[in-house]
User: Which sequence fits this backbone?
């Protein structure tokens, strides 16, 4: 069974990660979700990745804040696509999480998205696009979603448009 594995570094990340889960549900994409840490539970993280791959995980999404090494740790243990969501925080934490995810060494890629809610939503869309490479129905659903986004934008614009 193919699915997306969604990992977060702590329970406080869930408010952002639930945006990811909502988009996966919108496209009927199966997923697993858990809290695990690159630092506090590295063995749990490694074991989960191994078990998830054996069960059919095709894409991993990892969300973390501050030092945000979870996505990099996941990428170290798999050759499946890994998508990182930097979790926002106070002071430098947003930049720290972004840089921790985006600055991966050569040969260990992590697709890094925007900090926060937009990144969480786009992580799910990117996972769906990856899965759609081998799933024509999902590819069609993504096209339909794009059309609906365009229609909503046009509708919103028509309510405020002023032309000379």
Assistant:
């Amino acid at each position: 069974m193919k699915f997306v594995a969604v990992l977060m570094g702590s329970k406080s990340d869930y408010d952002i990660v639930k945006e990811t889960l909502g988009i996966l549900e919108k496209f009927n994409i199966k997923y697993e979700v858990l809290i695990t840490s690159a630092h506090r539970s590295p063995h749990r993280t490694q074991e989960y990745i191994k078990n998830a791959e054996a069960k059919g995980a095709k894409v991993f999404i990892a969300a973390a804040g501050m030092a945000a090494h979870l996505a990099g740790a996941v990428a170290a243990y798999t050759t499946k696509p890994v998508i990182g969501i930097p979790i926002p925080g106070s002071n430098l934490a947003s930049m720290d999480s972004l840089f921790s995810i985006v600055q991966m060494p050569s040969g260990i890629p992590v697709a890094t998205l925007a900090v926060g809610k937009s990144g969480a939503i786009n992580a799910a869309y990117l996972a769906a696009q990856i899965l759609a490479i081998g799933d024509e129905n999902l590819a069609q659903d993504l096209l339909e979603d794009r059309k609906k986004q365009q229609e909503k934008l046009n509708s919103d614009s028509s309510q405020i448009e002023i032309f000379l």
Summary: Residues 36 and 45 are 6 Å apart (CA to CA). The longest helix spans residues 136-158. The radius of gyration is 17 Å.
